[in-house]
Amino acid sequence: MNKLKHTREKSGLTQEQVALKTGVASFTYVRYENPRYNRYPDVRTAIKIAKVLGTTVEALWDVEQENHDESKQVTFEG
Length: 78
Fold this sequence. Notes:
- Helix content is 50%, strand content 18%.
- It is α+β, with helices and mostly antiparallel strands and 78 residues long.
- The chain has a two-stranded antiparallel ribbon with strand order 1-2.
- A hairpin with a 2-residue loop joins β1 (62-68) and β2.
- α2 packs across α3 (26-33) and α2 crosses α4 (43-52).
- The longest helix is centred in the middle third of the chain and has 10 residues, at 43-52.
- The chain is globular and about 30 Å long.
């Protein structure tokens, strides 16, 4: 079970509820949870999902930060 699904289930919310609260389509949110699709939200959506679930982006996905010319690039890894 992935971290996103586990955290959502612990929060007592359905996939549809999280999708509605974050403004994404239900079928899109389902794809974020299902590793078969290998889909990740954009950074803004990831932050919204984390807030709805009462956690951080880092707690939901493995996040690597790389410094390039004083800017931070964030990549999600499954």
